[in-house]
Amino acid sequence: MILWDLFRDPLSNKKFHFGVIMKRYKIIHRTYYNYTDIVTLGAHHLLLRPREGHDLRIESFVLKVTPDAQIYWHRDVEDNSVAIANFTGPAQQLTVESEVIIQQYNESPLDFIVADYAINYPFSYTEGDQFLLSPYRVLPDQKTRELLNNWIFQVWKSGEQVQTYTLLQRLTETINKTLVYKVREEPGVQSAEETLSLGSGSCRDFALLFMEAVKCLGLASRFVSGYLHAPLMSSQIGSTHAWAEVYLPGGGWKGFDPTIGDIVGTDHIPVAVSRLAEAVPPISGSYAGSAKSKLDVGVWVSKL
């Protein structure tokens, strides 16, 4: 779909029309927790509503939770939209279903301008940016730093002239080409050391490896959880996706997806961001009781 926006030149007062390409996606996310006995559900935090902005708009959003719960919404410290579900009675199954239709305008992900001083690597953030970005630049421990510096040396050697974007894209492609992607059902995120040692990982493991490497370069990075539209699998049961963002002066937070080896584009739908990879699961909560639980998740992302 092409939307036509009106622009008035402030100098000539002439009117111009330009086309903006918009894509629409539907995301259905269903989560089922089945318990072997009656349990008491504690509060659950739901990160299911995509992050709105100039490049993504929510057309409709429906959230259903069973058993009945009181839902309270708020924005957390990183501006994620969080729903807190408080339950009033016992249950043997918890169902969380969300259905959202979005309008995506990020048609040209490479169409951004980097500040002159940050075009080439290395560069230093301004003093004001360093203060604000400090949580996203915390270095890993010394052992991990040494490991990652040796790994980075295979991609870029100190003294080599390189554009900042080119270096970040090299890291993205290297993870994609040298490591094996594996679906991991168990919760949590592998450390960068584990991922390199095993030679494999999930999308969240690859995102963390990329983040840690970027921090060793002195740049700010953060973890992103969301959805990916994979056209060949749109009719199959999928799962959530994860990637990373790097702060580039002038361009802002730009996404890189080492799982696919490319920059983030229109097929990526962000839901939550965090400086910590393990901090933004789609659903988190607790229950009281001796029962065991089984988790089933289904995600469908389709283009409308």
UniProtKB/TrEMBL annotation:
List UniProt keywords, sorted A-Z: Hydrolase, Protease
Q: Which SUPFAM superfamilies match?
A: Cysteine proteinases
Every Transglutaminase-like domain range: 195-260
Q: Which InterPro entries match?
A: Bac_transglu_N (IPR013589), Papain-like_cys_pep_sf (IPR038765), Transglutaminase-like (IPR002931)
GO MF terms held by the record: peptidase activity
**Any GO BP annotation:** proteolysis
**UniProt-recorded name of the protein:** Transglutaminase-like enzyme, putative cysteine protease
- Organism whose genome encodes this protein: Neptunomonas qingdaonensis
Question: What taxonomic classification does the UniProt entry list for its organism?
Answer: Bacteria, Pseudomonadati, Pseudomonadota, Gammaproteobacteria, Oceanospirillales
